[in-house]
Backbone:
């Protein structure tokens, strides 16, 4: 059953990237992240009350609280980096880098969670790394500080690093409680973090400037994010992180397909080969 939840997470995550890109064409990415987090937070708590896990709230241990908060902080940092990268760069370039977080996640799962790294896992990691490299547009090296067009790459890399930490910390944080409750708590941390960023950067005035159309896309991306999270952490609670995470990263197929039809972003031959490596590596990891 956890495999089905992991596949659901991949689908909703892929749709989220497209909806988010539509919602931040003119809207500040930090403000958009803060708004969509409200939707995710409300959605996650709705699920808590639907399954009746709110009774476990008073039973959460200090250790679980610690890892849920840390996971939420890592998630918030990943989101802020990811949606900034989406605003500055093409989806077909940003998403592969973000999905490469699976490599670091698997390594951390082996080291920290003592999950074994099988031969298929090692081959998959190499394949995903090669595919990601092929999908990144190479630029001539610049001297000194990065050019404006290169900031998307730095943000995408930051998103990948924080996303891998999120998976590991989240795995530990939800080990002792119902997954929906864990998701709701960590989403609250992300919500506080996102709005603190809006306040500290003095961007509260940008909320009033959001067009109704972009606000609609931002809210829809929040709904799909909530659905993806609920599926993901349900799968993570019952399945090994080294397998759940690769399945979730197959969302890149959904994103690439939608980006072609919605934004008319086409893959070069080299990028298409890279995508093939990423998908192949992911599927190899699922071999027994």
Residues:
């Amino acid at each position: 059953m956890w495999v089905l939840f992991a596949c659901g997470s991949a689908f909703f995550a892929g749709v989220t990237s497209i909806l988010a890109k539509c919602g931040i064409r003119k809207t500040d990415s930090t403000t958009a992240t803060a708004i969509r987090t409200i939707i995710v937070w409300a959605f996650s708590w709705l699920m808590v009350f639907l399954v009746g896990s709110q009774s476990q709230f008073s039973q959460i241990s200090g250790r679980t609280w610690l890892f849920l908060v840390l996971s939420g902080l890592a998630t918030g940092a990943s989101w802020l980096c990811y949606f900034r990268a989406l605003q500055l760069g093409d989806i077909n370039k940003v998403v592969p880098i973000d999905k490469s977080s699976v490599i670091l996640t698997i390594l951390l799962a082996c080291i920290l969670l003592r999950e074994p790294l099988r031969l298929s896992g090692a081959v998959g990691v190499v394949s995903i790394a090669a595919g990601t490299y092929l999908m990144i547009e190479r630029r001539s090296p610049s001297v000194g500080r990065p050019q404006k067009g290169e900031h998307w790459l730095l943000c995408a890399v930051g998103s990948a690093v924080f996303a891998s930490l999120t998976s590991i910390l989240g795995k530990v944080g939800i080990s002792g409680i119902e997954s929906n409750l864990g998701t709701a708590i960590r989403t609250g941390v992300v919500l506080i973090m996102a709005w603190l960023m809006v306040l500290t950067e003095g961007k509260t005035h940008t909320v009033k400037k959001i067009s109704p159309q972009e606000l609609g896309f931002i809210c829809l991306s929040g709904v799909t994010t909530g659905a993806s999270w609920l599926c993901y952490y349900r799968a993570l609670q019952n399945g090994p992180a080294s397998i759940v995470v690769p399945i979730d990263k197959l969302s890149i197929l959904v994103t690439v397909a939608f980006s072609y039809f919605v934004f008319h972003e086409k893959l070069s031959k080299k990028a298409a080969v890279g995508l093939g490596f990423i998908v192949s590596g992911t599927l190899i990891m699922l071999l027994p």
